[in-house]
Amino acid sequence: MANKYKNIAVLCGEPLDPYSHEILKGAFNASKDMEVNLIVVPGKYYGNDISDFESQFEYQYTSLYSFINGKNVDAAVILTGAIGPFSDNPSSRNYFPRFKDKFKGLPVVSIASDVEGWSLIKYDNKNAIKEGVEYLIEEQHCKHIAMVTGEANSEDAIERLNAYKEALLENDMEINENLIVYGNFTRRSKNLIRDLIEQHPNVDAIVFGNDEMALAGYDVMKDLNLQVGRDIAFLGFDDSINAVRMNIPLASVRADAAELGYEAVKLACTVSDFNIIKQLKLPTQLIIRESMQKNAIKKDLAEIFRDEEFDIDTQFASKSLEIYEYLIDKRNNHINHDIVMNRYVNVANELESLFRLRELRDNDFQRLENAFFRFLSSFNRNDMDATKFIRILDRIMEYMSETKEDEYSKSVISRATARIFRRMVEQIDNSSEQKIQSDKDMFHNANMISKSMFLFDSGSNQSYSQILSSLPKIGINNSILVMYEKPITYLITDNFQVPETLYIRAVQHKDNVFVPSNKDRAISFDELFERCIDLTEETERKDYIMLSLFADEVNYGFLLCDLSFDYYSCAEALVNQGSNAIKMLNLLQEQEETSSQLELSLELLQKHNIELNEMANKDELTGIYNRRGFLNITQEALDNPENIDRYALVAYADTDNLKIINDRYGHEGGDFALTSCSNILFKVFSDGGMIGRIGGDEFAIVVIVDEVEAHDKYQKLLEDTTNELNSNSGKEYNVKMSVGMTMVKIKKGMQIADLLDKADALLYKKKKTRRKEILKSELENC
């Protein structure tokens, strides 16, 4: 590659999923240290059939996987188990070969899942879990240890389950299959955990396949009025930040996903250099906390000072270190641990001095307060667990008060405690306000981008640059809008085929947005990243993300941009707004082409002395009113004084699956569908109805009637007429419409546009339930 930096692609699922998010965090750190370009490809969930209406088109993200190959990237890191149902079970057996074929000849590092021909990096799923089970047996004397693991076909779940079983057998304990349940590595495992605890009340410990399922267990224990640790010991896996912050901190196996992402990118660089296949296994560590210490559950770390044998001269330093390790997460890369430790030592020294004083005065605490708040200033709001700080401080000050004999010293401690707590609350409030303001700014900028994307009034090439013009507001310095020559209909059952030629519609570099010249616009996907980086004139390495642009089953292209990691929560909004803007531009282009054709037609009509007004109000294909004619004649009917207090039946119809019919049967098929819909509507509403084609596949109808019951009559007649046409059409596919129909009483000043909006809203509800099948044979087999 001409680019001086390697291009490493990271293929993930949902980037905001906690596991994937930590992997990406580590990958970003590695890309800086290794000096490579990182291309994040969030494909959501490959091969998953998503049934709910709001998410049914998220499979469109998976089209991006098809763009990664050995010519445009040097290596790929793939979160194999997180992006699809890749296993040996029948429901997913057909997906993986198709997926794997996309990357032939490309060095690939698979995270967690062992794939033949790919390098592998994973955690050691065995040793730390065995150590944890042995601790529960030997130290906590647990007799009935259950396990909540992941999906039965997950490699991680299988390995962690086997480690649990081996530990039981090595300690002469029986394996009870009834105490093993299979969750899904998410908090949606609550019902399984509840059933396990209720059906087996003698369970005294549970080993979880990951922390997310363990946190679901906390909710179940609270619902059942049980306490983690005291009633049932918990052990998780991952050692997430949330695990540490629980009221009863969760014991866990430290398996840093960020480290996994970091090492995966390093390994990708190695295998791309030497064309080898390697396997790495990262060590894990058992972290014992209160959730698996049944006899110590009520003993906070601060209560070490209550030990009757505690000696300040010989034990204070070691006890202070214990508290430090309890308070500070050493994995946190956002803080300078040397500075934090030095400031903590100052706090401990001041605290020790106060312990040694026989009597206390108000000004004795000033040095401690200053040292303590200097220590707190080492953290930002997200890095500080305020609950733990407050609990520790409260217990220490309480103990100090108990060691003083005079009442004045006790009152000094009480006032000092109140001052410190008050300052802590103020500091937390200020941090929270700053975080809230930061979030407001982020969402405000995202909203401004949404508005700016639609500030165009034509479908010209220059309008595409408007979509990128406001991206610097959310920290995007470089972006490329890449589109296909024509929109691609991509169904969930399809294997997405990358077009031979892609078209760069707009390029953004900081505040400069431009449309490339015609000779620079067309590229092949083999040169995709190299050309895009050249166009933004970047000389430094960059981290990019690819975002698919689509509307329903239609895929327009993608956006390649350097969206910062902190703004990844805006990625989906960026997809939605960008996709809507692209769809609008396509509609404007079609409208302009249609208008241009209409103007030519009108000129011809003038030459041949044909009635212009009649033609201008009629749709050429169907012979019914066009949008202009329909709006004019229906508004005249509403304004007619004779129709006041009569009823208007208003319907909005949309030809179902026209795009699919066009793709499969050509424009002749599409024209047949449109004319058939027009004929159906004309036959049903010909008795006084006004019918118009007001968009590409959209029709509108207004009928003035005297009785409100006409709604049901027309609805039944519409269904019968449609069925009759399909029975006699001789076509192998059905022509159908989704229809929103409303009945209103005509009032003076009523506007046809308002009535059509109501009908359109009803049509939207109908469209949610329509099927994608068009073949008569498909419907017969349903």
CA gyration radius, whole angstroms? 34 Å
Decide which structural class fits the backbone.
alpha/beta
Helix content: 40-55%
Tell me the number of strands: 23
Mean pLDDT: 83
What would you note in describing this structure?
The chain has 782 residues and is α/β, with parallel strands linked by helices. The protein is 45% helix and 16% strand. It has 23 helices and 23 strands. Strands 1, 2, 3, 4, 5, 11, 13, 14, 15, 16, 17 and 18 form a twelve-stranded mixed sheet that branches. A five-stranded mixed sheet has the order 19-21-22-20-23, with helices on both faces. Strands 7-6-8-9 form a four-stranded parallel sheet, with helices on both faces. Strand 14 (502-509) and strand 15 form a beta hairpin. The protein is elongated and about 110 Å long. It starts with 6 loop residues before the first strand and ends with a helix. Mean pLDDT is 83; it is low at 87-92 and 296-302.
Q: What is the topology?
A:
Layout: E1 7-12, H1 18-34, E2 37-42, E3 75-78, H2 95-101, E4 108-111, E5 119-123, H3 127-138, E6 145-149, H4 155-170, E7 180-182, H5 190-199, E8 205-208, H6 211-223, E9 233-235, H7 241-244, E10 252-254, H8 257-274, E11 279-282, E12 285-287, H9 312-327, H10 337-356, H11 366-376, H12 386-403, H13 407-452, H14 461-468, E13 478-489, E14 502-509, E15 512-514, H15 518-521, E16 522-523, H16 528-535, E17 543-551, E18 554-561, H17 571-607, H18 612-616, E19 625-626, H19 627-639, E20 647-655, H20 658-685, E21 689-693, E22 698-705, H21 710-728, E23 737-745, H22 752-769, H23 776-781
Parallel strand pairs: 1-2, 1-3, 2-17, 3-4, 4-5, 5-11, 6-7, 6-8, 8-9, 19-21
Antiparallel strand pairs: 10-12, 13-14, 13-18, 14-15, 14-16, 17-18, 20-22, 20-23, 21-22
Helix pairs in contact: 1-8, 3-4, 5-6, 9-10, 10-11, 12-13, 20-21
